[in-house]
Amino acid sequence: METQSQVVDRLRSAFLSGVTMPEQFRRTQLTKLMSMIKDNEEQILSALHKDLAKPKFEAIVSEVDMVINELHYAIANFKSWMQPEYVNKSLATKLDDCFVRREPLGVVLIIGAWNYPLQLIFLPMIGAIAAGNCVVLKPSEVSAATESLIAELVPKYLSKDCYAVVRGGAEETKALLRNHFDHIFYTGSQAVARTILQAAALNLTPVTLELGGKCPCFIYGRVNIAAAAHRLVWAKFFNMGQSCVAPDYVLCSPATREALLPELRKTLEEFYGKEPQKCPDVSRIVSLRHYTRLMELLGKTKGRVVIGGESNQEDKFIAPTVVVDVLEDDALMQEEIFGPILPILTVESLEDGIALINHKEKPLALYVFSDETSVVDTVLENTSSGGFCSNDGIVHMTLPGLPFGGVGASGWGNYHGRWGFETFSHQRACMLRGWALERLNGLRYPPYTEDKLSWLRWTTSSKTSCSIM
Questions:
Q1: Does 231 share its domain with 173?
Q2: Cβ burial, residue 103 (10 Å; 0-12/13-18/19+)
C-alpha cells in the first residue's frame, strides 16, 4: 500500500509528464466523472442516507444533481475558458501579442466536509480537472459511508495516475498536509481552517477556504409572510440546518415576529407533520458529538422555545425548533448553529438590523425578505457577505454562473462554474515580442533625456491604448 507521500509523488510525476494538459484528456475525465455519478446513483443515495438519513429528494437535489449540473456546465464551457485572453495594448506594444494564459497549478488537495459529502468534494474537483490539475481528494471521515464509496469509485472511473483518494481522520489529514501541494481547497470549520493555514504556510501554499458563519435572514417592511415562512423553513431545515448557507438567525420587528410565528408553525406541520421524527423527509444530526453540542446550546439559551424542542439522543434527532426572546449576547448567537434551531431576534429599525449584522463577522450568505426594493437595496449596499439573496434562501448557490464563497472569516476565494476553473488556474501574463520598432524602444535606453521621457510617457500611456492584437 502506498504512503501518502508516494501518492503525492506519483501524481506529481503524472502532472510533470503533461498528460493533463490537453483539452481532450480533461474532457474525458469530466465525462467519466459524470458516468461515475449516474452509474452509481442508488449507491450514492444509500450512503448519504446511512450518514445523515438524507431524504432521497434532498440527496438528489443537493448532491447528485448539483454535481451533474456542474459537470454539464463545465464540459460545455471549459474549452473557451482555456483560450488566451487578449488585452488592450499601448502604442509601444501594438505589434506584440499580449494575453493572459490559464495554466494548471499542479497537484492540488481538496478536503471535503461531512454535511454534503458528495457535492463538497466533487464540485471543486470539477474545476480542478477542467483547469488541468492532478487532484488528491480527502473526503470527511465523519460521513463514513460516503467516504468509503468515494474511495471505491474514483479509481474505477478516473485516471489512477492523476487522481487519488486519501482516507482517515484528523491525524491522517495532518500527515497529508505535510506534503507539498500547489493549492489546498478546504471546506469546513474556522478552527480546522487555522491549522490548515499553519501547515500551508510552511510551503507558501495558496489556500481556498470555504467556511461559514452566522447567516442572517432579515425580514423587514412589507412582506408576504406566508411565502416568507415557506421559503425560510425550507432553507433553514433543509438537511436539518446542517448547511453552511442555512439562515442561522432571523431579524425582524416585534410586529413581524408575531405575524411570522403562526405561519412558521403552520408551515412546519405542513412540511414535516405533527411528529417530525416519523417524517421521512427529516434528516438526522450527523453524529452524537454534534447532537450533544446542539442540545447544550438549547440548554444554555436564555430565549424561549416556542416551536419544537423535542429530541431523541439514540436517533440523533432534534425537531425543527424556533426560539424567541433571544438577545445578541445569547449562547445561540456566539457560534454558527449548524442545526435545526432558529433564533428570532427583534430590532426596531432597518438601521438597527444592519448595525447588528455588521457587528458580527461577515457571513457566507445574507438573506433579506421584503416586498420593498428600497429595503433590499439598502441592506445590500450597507453590508458585506459572501453571497446575497432576496426573498429566498440557499438557491443562489445552485447557479454555476455565480461565484460561491465567503469573505473574511466566512471564507477566502470562490468556486462553481468558471470561478472554480479560475481558482485552480494560474493567470499567466504573457507578452510575445519580435525585434521590430527598435527605434521606438530606444526611447527607454540611456542616455536619458527629457525629450525621450516625454515620448516614452506618451507611447506607454493607457490613453494611447491600442486594441490591435
A1: no
A2: middle
Q: What is the pTM of this model?
A: 0.95
Give the helix/strand (H/E) hosting 101: strand 97-104
Report strand pairing: 107-111 vs 134-138.
parallel
Which among 67, 28, 69, 26 has a CA at the least distance from the CA of 44? 67
Closest CA to 58 of 277, 278, 309, 279: 279
Q: Is 465 helix (H, G, I), strand (E, B) or coil?
A: coil
311-320 exposure pattern, b = at least 16 Cβ within 10 A, e = fewer: beeeebbbbb
Question: Residues 338, 288: one domain?
Answer: yes
Using only C-alpha atoms, the chain has a radius of gyration, in whole angstroms, of 26
Q: Domains in the chain: how many in total?
A: 2
Write out the residue range of the structural domain in which residue 36 sits: 4-212+413-426
The answer to whether residue 466 scores a pLDDT higher than 70 is no
- Active centre residues (catalytic): 210, 244
Answer yes or no: is pLDDT of 469 > 50: no
The CA angle 35-36-37, to the nearest 5 degrees, is 90
Residue 223 and residue 208 share a domain: no
Q: Is the pLDDT of residue 41 over 90?
A: yes
Question: Would the pLDDT of 467 be above 60?
Answer: no
d(CA 334, CA 301): 11
Tell me the C-alpha distance between 203 and 275, whole Å: 53
What's residue 404's pLDDT?
Answer: 98
- Cα of first residue to Cα of last residue in the chain, in angstroms, is 53
**What does the pLDDT read at residue 4?**
95
Model confidence over 316-338: pLDDT tens digits? 999 999 999 999 999 999 999 99
Max Cα–Cα distance, the chain, nearest Å: 88
